[in-house]
Specification:
Strand order of the largest sheet: 1-2-4-3-5-6-7-8
Helix content: 25-40%
Largest sheet: 8 strands, mixed
Number of domains: 1
Structural class: alpha/beta
CATH architecture: 3-Layer(aba) Sandwich
Number of strands: 8
Mean pLDDT: 95
CATH topology: Rossmann fold
Low-confidence stretches: none
Distance between the termini: 36 Å
Length: 316
Amino acid sequence: MPLDRTLQHIFAQAKASGAPDLTDLPPEAARAVYRQILAAADVAPADVDVTSHTIDGPDGALPLRVYRPRREAVQGIVVYYHGGGFVLGDLDGYDNVCRQLCEDSGGLVVSVGYRLAPEHPFPAAIDDAWAALEWVAANAGEIASRDARIAVAGDSAGALLATVMCILARDRRGPVIAFQALVYPPAAAGSLLDFPSRTLYADGPTLTARMIDYFNGFYFGAEGPPRNALAAPLCADDLAGLPPALLQIGTYDPLRDEALAYGQRLLEAGNDAIVVEYHGLPHGFVSMGGAVRAARLAQRQLAQALRDALQPTAHV
């Protein structure tokens, strides 16, 4: 199955324009380029209410952005963790993604501006992600309703944070998470285990093996990622008792095989998990819904799964 034709054209144009390789840039410059990449094929901003919040995080102020649907009553809460390899990405870069997710799902979406590496290496992002989840659970009655179901969602690095939140919530006996929506998670930290897709798609077309090493170097340091559930959920000893899950994966992604393996581990542990592979899509498709029909379909599927899970009568 070839790469989506629209994406072939977009990538050819980017190559002809001389767009820089993110790994050739220092983090601050790479963050600015990443914002441009996210906006290039994204959907137009959805018409939802948006408010900014700041909560007490583990190391100071932690910014959140809350998206509320205008056309219907809130259907539960989605805590969203953005991608970017723990080095890139921010609330602004993922604003359209979260607006559209709010509009499509009917959920109150809380986007988390967790700290980034190299300024804040592992496990700072996990600490912030947990603080945000606890705040949402404690304040659900004020921002949505007291009995609102809570789901976690994220793409790439954010998907890893989402599934780590589920593991921690299980082990710490709360907060209760009704669903986890994971978009191409680096379940083995992108490099801990040997998977064919990492070699097959080492040169992209979006995420590359060089980028994975760039991100891991800043986030985990020279020693690399540890073999534990916080860095690589696929290395967890026990994955039983986790919330129902949707895993969305693109074929043209060096992370494909570890994400598939994680889905298999969830199922083997007795969890309810659905794994969907989009054969024409690469890593990063969550922000391509404005230009690529298959990516827009993936956005809608993600939102529908969350809508179903957040209904008051949903089975958990």
